[in-house]
Amino acid sequence: EAFYKKNNRWTEGLISAAKTVAMATNTLVETADGVIKGTRTLEHLVVAAREVSAATVQLVAAARVKSHLNSRTQERLELAAKAVTEASAHLVRATQRLTEKEESRSAEDYDNMSNLEFKSNEMEQQVQILKLEKELVGARRRLAEMRRHGYHAQEDSD
Questions:
Q1: Any residues with CB less than 8 A from the CB of 50 and at least 6 apart, and which?
Q2: Does residue 22 have a pLDDT over 90?
């Protein structure tokens, strides 16, 4: 108890990191449920899995700050974190393989298209790419702004 009183700032950070892992895990479960129900996409699942992995890494790093060298508890935490990271990576790879299979099934038969049809589809794809690139730039900008805001909000609460 005296250790936690003496290191209350670290303790609060460790608790916060653990809560972040719990929230990320909850989001992953809800996202997986949404994928099954058709309300979420496989891309949502990939993002949620990566969030769990990142939150777990932060928890281990926070715990490592005050742990004793060769601590069995820290060793077990790091092994568990490694298992979480590997499971998340496996889920991401499986999701990507599934996505690739779906995309290959939906491929069009270009050999049976007329030249006009082919050119029209090609131009439509170029338009689609430009729209997606514009959306991607906007999404990255919004994400950066959200992270800046979250960082400054954390500084203000400390």
A1: 88, 92
A2: yes
